[in-house]
Amino acid sequence: MDKIGTFTLEKVVLNKMGELAVIGTVDFGSRLSRLLRPKYELGIRRRGEQSTRWVPAQITEATVGRFSIRATVDASGGDEPAGYSDVYFRRAGEAAENAQRVHFPVGGRDWSAYPTKFGNVSFKRGIV
Amino acid sequence: MSGAQHPPTDMRYFMALWGIADEFGGMTTMSLYRACIFLEEAGIVAPILTFEPRAGYERQIETLRAHGKITTDVTVLNPFTYYRQADPETTGEAQQFVPAMPVPAGETDENVDDDGNVFCKTAFQGDGKTVCLREYLRADGTPFLFDEFPTDADGKKTGRILTLVDRRGNIAGRWKTAADFYRHWMVELAGGQPTAIIVDSAFASKVVAPLREADIVKLMVLHNAHVASGGDPVRGKIAAGQQPILTSINDWDGIVFLTDEQRHDYEARFGRTSNLFTVSNPKERAKTMPGFEQRAPQRGVLLGRLAPQKNLQQAIRVMAKVRESLPGATLDIYGKGPDEDELRTLIGSLGLEETVHLRGHIPHAADQFDVARFSLLTSRNEGQPLALMESQGRGCPPVSYAIRYGPRDIIEDGISGYLVDAGDTESAAARIVELCTDDDGAARMSRGAWDRAERFGKKAIVDRWLDTIGAVWGQRSRRTEIRDMRMQVEEIAWLHPGTLEVTAHIGWKQKTGPALERDVAVDFMVVPRSAGAAIRLPAAKVESSGGSIVATARIDPATMATDVDDDQEFLDVFCRVVGGDVAAMFRVGFPPAALTLPFVTTEQALSLRTDARP
Fold first, then answer.
1. What is the ipTM of this complex?
2. pLDDT tops 90 at residue A28
3. Residue A100: left if φ>0, alpha if ψ -120 to 50, beta else—which one?
4. Does B525 lie at the interface with A, CB-CB under 8 angstroms?
5. Is the pLDDT of residue B100 over 50?
6. Residues of A in contact with B555 (CB under 8 A)
C-alpha cells in the first residue's frame, strides 16, 4: 500500500445549517494512488476516549501531485455531550494509530477568533 | 448649505412635542422658539403639535406668552383639543357608536378643563383599578372620542379601540392604537398639501416615525449626545431615549444633529446616509457688541446647573491654578443643583472662597457675559452648550474643554475663544490668565467671538432649516422605505485560527425607492473593545437580488490591526449596511445552529469544542 500522504489543512468552514467542513489537500504517494483514487477519512476522537468516529472525506479535485479533500461533520451538537475532540486524518482502512493529527498552523498570527458568551464573533490576542 | 433647494411655497410646517409640561426644559424651549423665529424671520406659521390628552392649552399659552416663551401668533394644536372643538366628518352611511362591551357600574374618575367642564371620564373594571373606558367629552357634554379596553370572558384585555364620533354619535373614525389616531389627525392637518413635521421629543417620535404619506416629510432633531453619559462614540451604549430613533433612521426623511461633530461621529460608527443633516440651535447675539471697557479685567462667568454632567469641580480646580499667578481673578458660577454642597466644600478646602463664588440661580444671568472677561465650560458632555453660544454672542470669549458635543463647532480656537483638552486644568488656567492680562488680545478675541456668533442668529438658523427641509423635500422621491432588515451569517471559514472569512446574508422588505441592493455597501467593522478607532473592511457582494445581498470579507487582525493599541486584548466584529438613507449595524455571531467550533491547540493542531445544548 502507498504511503498515506500528508494532509494540509486549508480551512475549516462552518455553515448556517451547523455543518462543519474540514477542507485541505493531500499529496499522494505515487502515480498509482492517483489512478486508484484512494478513500480518505476524517476522525473525531473525544478526549479521554479510545474510539474514533470516522467520516468519509470526498476528493473534490485532483491536481498535479495532490487531491483536494473535504470532509463534513455535524456541528449542531446532535447527541454529543459537551467536551473537546481532536481531529485525525487517514486513508480508509489504515490502522487508527497510523492516522495523522490534523495541523492547524497559526502562521505567525497573534489573534484568535473565539465565541463570546452570547455566541458572537470576537478575537483575542494569542492562542485561545 | 448654499445653492440649496427651497421647500414648496405652499408647504405647511409643524413642530412636534409629546406635551408641554408646566416646567419644561431646553428641548421644549427650543421647539417653541423655533416656531417663533420661523414666523419672525420667514413669515412661516408653524404650530406646535402635541399628543398628550389635554382639553386645551389656553391658560398655559397665556403664561408662555406672558413670559416671552412664545409670540402671539404661535399656536399649539392637540388632537383632543382639535376634535373636542371640531365636529368630525362622517363619510358613507351613518353608523352609531355601540360600546364594545358594557361598562361596569361603579365609580368613574373625571378630569375637567380650565372652565370646570368635564373633559374625560374614566371607567374601571370591577377591581376599581383597571381602566376599561375613557370617554372624552366636548364642553357641551357630548362625547367625541371613546377609548375602550375590552376584555374577554376571563377579564383579559383583548386590545384597544379608539372611536371618534360626531355630535350625533355617528362613527367618524376607528383605530386600534392611539398612535394611529394621532397620525390620522396629522394627515387631516396636512390637508393633502406638502407638509414638514419637525419632531423634538423622542416620545413624540414614536407617533410620527411610522407616518407615511407622499407629501409629508418628517425630521427628527437629536437634542442630546447619541451615546449615553458622554461615552465613547465608537462603542458607547446608545442613549436609551434615542435607541428607537437611531436604530430606524430609515423612518425619517431627515435626522438633524445640532453639531457637525456629532453627525460625523454618528457617520463614522453607523455609516453616512443621505438623510443626515446639521442645524444648530439658534442663539441670537447681542444687537451691539458690549463694550470691552465695561468688562472686569479678571472676572469670569460660568452658567450651568450644579450637576455632575457640568463637572464644576474641574472649573474650581482650574481657578485654583489661575489664582497661583493671578490672585485677584474670580469666577462667578450661576445656577443651582444637587452638587452645591460638594462644590462649596471643595471651594473651602482649596481656600478659594475669594476666587470662586456660587451665585445661585438669578433671572437674566446671561447678562453677566456682558461684563466678564472670560467664560468657562468644563462639562463632561453636552448636546450643544447654549452657554458657550450666549457667551460668544455677548463678546465674552469662552475657555472650554473640547468635549463632545459643541465646543469644537462653536469655538474657532484662538479666534473666538480657546479650546483645551478635557481635564487639562493647566492649559485652561493658562488661557484664562492670558485673557485676563493681555488687554489687546482679549479685546481682539472678544470681537472675534461676537463676529462669529452671527452664524447662530435667528435668520441664519431659519435659512438653514429651510435649506434642510428643501433638501429633504427634493430627495423624498428617492427615499428608500425598507422594513425588517436582517443579517444572518451564512458561513464562517477559518483560514487560520486568527483569520476568518465571513459570508453574510442581508435581507429586507422594500416598499419604495430605488432598489437598495444596487446602492448598498456592506462593511465588516472590527472594533477594539475598550478604546481606539474601528477598522472598516469593505465586503464583496457575491450575490444580489431583490431585497437580498450575500457579502463576504476576510478578517485578519494580524494584518489589519496594526493601529490597535497594545493594551487592547479583544476585538469585536460587526456587519454594517449603508446605502441611500438606510444604515444598519449588526453584531456578527457564529451560526446559531453550531454547537461545535474549531480551535487550535498549543501544538498547532486542530481540535473541536462542543458546548452543552442550551
1. 0.94
2. no
3. beta
4. no
5. yes
6. 123
Plot region of B604 (φ>0 → left; ψ -120 to 50 → alpha; else → beta): left
Classify residue B77 by its DSSP letter: E
Q: What is the pLDDT of residue A128?
A: 64
The strand ranges marked E within B223-363 are 254-257, 276-278, 299-303, 330-334, 356-360
Asked if A13 lies within 8 A of B609 by C-beta distance, the reply is no
Residue A86 within any structural domain of the chain: yes
pLDDT at A36 exceeding the cut of 80: no
In a domain, A2, yes or no: no
pLDDT for A4: 60
Helices (H), B52-151: 58-66, 79-85
Measure in Å the smallest separation between the Cα of A104 and chain B Cα atoms: 5
Range of the domain at A58: 7-125
Minimal Cβ distance to B606: which of A14, A102, A115: A102
Cβ–Cβ below 8 Å for A13 and B491: yes
Evaluate whether A107 touches B496 at the Cβ level (below 8 Å). yes
Residues of B in contact with A12 (CB under 8 A): 493-494, 598, 606
Distances (CA, A) of B40 to A12, B454, B466, B562: 68, 17, 14, 55
Residue B187 has a CB neighbour count (10 Å cut-off) of 15
Question: Count of domains in chain A?
Answer: 1
What is the pLDDT confidence band of residue B154, given thresholds at 50, 70 and 90? Answer: confident
Which of B529, B573, B602 lies nearest to residue A121, judging by beta carbons? B573
Distance, in Å, from the CA atom of B467 to the CA atom of B2, rounded to the nearest integer, reads: 8
Query: Any idea what the CATH number is for the domain that residue A113 is in?
Result: 2.60.40
Q: What does the DSSP 8-state code read for residue B292?
A: G
Grid cell of B30 as nine digits: 427650543
